[in-house]
Amino acid sequence: MKNAVCRLSVFVLCLCCLSVGSPAHLAWSEQATDTFAVDAFVVASVQLAVVSIDFGSFAKTNQVDGQGAIQITATNGLPYNIQMGPGSAFVAADGNRRMGGDGGNEFLNYNLFIDAERTLVWGDGSFGYTTGAAGNGNLQEFPVYGRVFAGQQVVADHYDDLLQVTVFF
Hints:
mainly beta
């Protein structure tokens, strides 16, 4: 019993000590205030990724269509314009792009288009059309429609081209 009384007394003493130092029981007579500034600056930004086109293997007499994509993630509300360069062997006279053969002397005509009907050549403004949108903060995908034209008289070879994609914002 004496042990229980002793424990109870210590417990009550501890409670009294805690309540005396409690902020709820302190009386404040003065105060000072100030403002705390928080700010941020969101910069205009664009992230660009491409999904290339592989036309695969085919007989040179066939027309072959393919599809790739340009993927843009841009700051919300940021307007941007997508331009596609002519490639390494562009022929301005007929407006076609050309893939060069590994042999170095042969070219395979093709082009890239903005529309699925393949009527609007995707270019840089000096040839063809450009496209764009306003960013929404999420990934926006623009299909790239490709076509290798039928009836070309070329040797069997591997053909390729590299084009520069530029996003202006």
